[in-house]
Amino acid sequence: DADVTQTPRNRITKTGKRIMLECSQTKGHDRMYWYRQDPGLGLRLIYYSFDVKDINKGEISDGYSVSRQAQAKFSLSLESAIPNQTALYFCATSDPVGTASPQYFGPGTRLLVL
Amino acid sequence: AQKITQTQPGMFVQEKEAVTLDCTYDTSDPSYGLFWYKQPSSGEMIFLIYQGSYDQQNATEGRYSLNFQKARKSANLVISASQLGDSAMYFCAMREGLSNTGKLIFGQGTTLQVKP
Lengths: 114, 116
What we know:
Helix content of chain B: under 10%
Shape of chain B: globular
Order of helices and strands of chain A: EEEEEEEEEEE
Strand content of chain B: over 45%
Radius of gyration of chain A: 13 Å
Oligomer: heterodimer
Structural class of chain B: mainly beta
């Protein structure tokens, strides 16, 4: 079984709808991240969390919110989806050990906002 | 200013040959880590290799090696004996030691196509 899972894998929604993307991990990591990927822009950080009570905004948090329900679960919500939020969304986890710890990514959620 | 620059949008390589994917970075932090990820057409991000700023030797992982030139601020990925399954997009990323987010800063990626 995958260490980091994301649901749904694909989603089509309409402008103005609320949508939640879910992430679960079995790696036992405290740190969790949400990124979005747009063509030609690499990955950009939306939110990150160091534990259940520590949630922080990333560089592009406007229009998004998150919830850390447990160490293993980190959800991303689009309160009112808009077309420019169409993107590939990744959840990632890592150990808090200096600079050497890689981030491990989920399989991604492809979101299309019409 | 771009912190991670990958200047090759697309690359071709013949199967069984070696290929180098370029990555330059910009940081004033003395402690940092450099990572390479592979993204096949299926979309997932696969961690390949890591190099620390204080590491004396270039990192290697199987057919992957990292040509780390600290003075030039470059961290090129070398894939030896290319295989058809190596066709993918490759991302270089950096984590700065002084950053309390632990976040990775990504380049724009290089698409590699391996020709049979």
